[in-house]
Amino acid sequence: MISSTDLQLVQAIARGGSLAAASRTLNVTASAVSQRLSSLEQRLGLKLAERSGGASLVMTTEGELLAARAEQLLNTLDGLEEEIAAQRGIISGHLKVIAPLGFGRLRIAPLLATFQTQNQGITVNLQLSDQLGHLPRDSWDIIFRVGPLKNSDLLRTTIASNRRILCASPDYLKQHGSPRTPADLTNHQCIAIREDDEDVTLWRFTGKEGKRSDIRIAPPLASNDGEVAKGWALSDRGIILRSEWSVREDIKAGRLTELLPHWQAPDAPVTALTHHNSTKPARVQLFLDFAKERLGKTV
């Protein structure tokens, strides 16, 4: 008989692709994963995974079939537990959230901590990534995005509006002057934030009466972490185009100065992506409502 523990083992190996990755997921040693896999294969009389190139594991045809069914069955079991708990007025389960590096660290992480404190029956896992242009292989409940979303069949919920602001430190502007038009940016040190697959060196602006101005910058500094880029701007290294949630307090305190206020870069709304389930799990809908209520006031 195959148990839920066996299904979790196969799922972890299929997702991780190695004994080490599966051991981290299951919180056991790699040798324990190897022993459990061998035991399961002996009971089934089937080879589920083959070693390939050192420590890597490749699922066999039978292993892939079992891994696919394991995903379905474990999700069904999780849903059943939630339904039973809901009958007693308890919302429970494991909430898996993925978010961008900077926004996830500064906004989603503290939000999830508060949410979990208020909902003790829910456990939380937060994964931060700067590559959200492609859906992750791991299972997830909610993916947060900041900025425009390319074609997606996922359900999207707008959490908060968010404009992007062009800004630099007062000392940088004293040394280099302030741009009067978007075209002037080509004569400045502009700092790029490399996220997903976006064309980050093409800055687009819309002025009065819908006039467009697209500028190709040549950044001397670039990072995949927006907070690193902001740190450079605060250190007088150049001009950044950054989300309002990140620079609002710095502008208010005079550490950064907004530039070209009559030219607007495309907005970068905060959205939450979820699966097309017939009904969202209660834990997912509860956190979406919580995030919209909290972030809608602060972003």
UniProtKB/TrEMBL annotation:
<keyword id="KW-0805">Transcription regulation</keyword>
<dbReference type="InterPro" id="IPR000847">
    <property type="entry name" value="LysR_HTH_N"/>
</dbReference>
<feature type="domain" description="HTH lysR-type">
    <location>
        <begin position="2"/>
        <end position="60"/>
    </location>
</feature>
<dbReference type="InterPro" id="IPR058163">
    <property type="entry name" value="LysR-type_TF_proteobact-type"/>
</dbReference>
<dbReference type="GO" id="GO:0003700">
    <property type="term" value="F:DNA-binding transcription factor activity"/>
</dbReference>
<dbReference type="InterPro" id="IPR005119">
    <property type="entry name" value="LysR_subst-bd"/>
</dbReference>
<protein>
    <recommendedName>
        <fullName>HTH lysR-type domain-containing protein</fullName>
    </recommendedName>
</protein>
<dbReference type="InterPro" id="IPR036388">
    <property type="entry name" value="WH-like_DNA-bd_sf"/>
</dbReference>
<dbReference type="GO" id="GO:0006351">
    <property type="term" value="P:DNA-templated transcription"/>
</dbReference>
<dbReference type="InterPro" id="IPR036390">
    <property type="entry name" value="WH_DNA-bd_sf"/>
</dbReference>
<comment type="similarity">
    <text>Belongs to the LysR transcriptional regulatory family.</text>
</comment>
<keyword id="KW-0804">Transcription</keyword>
<keyword id="KW-0175">Coiled coil</keyword>
<feature type="coiled-coil region">
    <location>
        <begin position="63"/>
        <end position="90"/>
    </location>
</feature>
<dbReference type="Pfam" id="PF00126">
    <property type="entry name" value="HTH_1"/>
</dbReference>
<dbReference type="Pfam" id="PF03466">
    <property type="entry name" value="LysR_substrate"/>
</dbReference>
<dbReference type="GO" id="GO:0043565">
    <property type="term" value="F:sequence-specific DNA binding"/>
</dbReference>
<keyword id="KW-0238">DNA-binding</keyword>
